[in-house]
Amino acid sequence: MTRTLIETQTLAKVYGTGEIAVHALRGVDTQVQEGEFVAVMGPSGSGKSTLMNILGCLDRPTSGSYVLDGEDVSELGKDRLAAVRNSKIGFVFQSYNLLPRLTAAKNVMVPMLYNVRGSDSSPMSDAERRERALEALAAVGLGDRVDHRPNELSGGQQQRVAIARALVNEPSMILADEPTGNLDTRSSEEIMVLLHKLHDHGATIVMVTHELDIAQHAQRVIYLVDGQIVSDKLHASNLKSLHVGSVTSET
Question: Does residue 250 sit within a domain?
């Protein structure tokens, strides 16, 4: 029996006040079950990036609630939000966000610098962090690139490093924001094959994309317009009429 990993109720986000107020989200109600692969789509200004920032504990809603893995994170302070991000969420970004002076292995080790092990809260040793980083890189097919820096890797390989980094703390879910946006067709296909592999092994994935062919990889598509969900649980092939005329920049 699956359990609810994400639940939002009347989630709203307002930037500014008075006449200049921007209502980025307007009462979003949704759930994501453990093990689901969900795509989030919508035209420019729809609120999809705002939603992802809140789901990723990078921002807090103006009103409404967000329960992540059984914990209401809507009003947590910055320190607790940071702890939740590090322990429960793995991020994959369009621009990879790798540190240029670090090797692939050291980039993957970064999230573990803030991680602890066991009930005694003792920090992991460098050897333990490196061992886990090497395992994560091997899992994404980069076992022979562990000592390469980002400028020595292709775009697809850099995104694989980013995915390994997202996985290394064994998070509850992976949030992927336009994970193929900077990649050519072949590299995009390779990244989606990898995400499918992770999903097949039980990973929960929430992915923002503006590309219909990429969204078709998901089990479920949430489509936002003007900060509200206008369709849900529809395969991407049924969303073409909603997607016509939309542009790719994000709120």
Answer: no
